[in-house]
Amino acid sequence: MTENSLTHSPAAERNRIPIGEVLGRWLARDARVLEIGSGTGQHAAWFHELMPGLTWQTTDLPENLEAIRTRLKAEAPALPAPLALDVMHSGDWPEGPWDAVYTANTLHIMPWDHTPALLRAAGERVAAGGLLVIYGPFRDGEAFDAESNRRFDEQLRQRNPDMGLRDILKVRRMAEDSGWTAEAEIAMPANNRLLIFRKSE
After folding, report:
1. What order of strands is seen across the sheet that includes strand 143-144?
2. Which SS3 state, helix, strand or coil, does residue 148 take?
3. Residue 5's pLDDT is what?
4. 129 phi and psi, to 5 degrees?
5. Domain limits at 178?
6. Domain of 86: which CATH number?
7. Are 37 and 60 in contact (CB under 8 A)?
8. What's the sign of the alpha-carbon dihedral 21, 73, 6, 57?
């Protein structure tokens, strides 16, 4: 199996290194992590290479599982098989407790009402003191931190009115309502941010 035969995301290739550096500081080496929206599986394979002691469970919609399965077989065969998961279906979520839930570049793709569902379900399955890690571009109210993010938001909304960059203040409030405490907001390359929340003890 060659790299060229695998489904590939240039964005995941670019951001995996800086995200991995942050995760290496926040996650225990033997952490059990549930990833929501694993896409091509590139993050799972890379983070497993960086931290082979992690149990990293990939998930995505059923139509995306074959691409993830193919990548893991080629690059991270020790990881468990990907699971089908729709954040709106509570029965899809695997039982925990997980040490962390991780999701990258999903909130601006999912309809807005999926965000509170994700935050609630993650809180129900993470152990006390565990983490929720969210990566992606955001806006602050109606303000964008870069012109490229404003254009990206317009493109998303033209593609589907349910998409678009999310207001980071609203995401924080929703997280707090679901029992999460904001731990860190880290500026990342290409005008992205990484939000880290901790579940109340």
Report:
1. 143-144, 138-140, 166-167
2. helix
3. 60
4. 85, -5
5. 3-199
6. 3.40.50.150
7. yes
8. negative
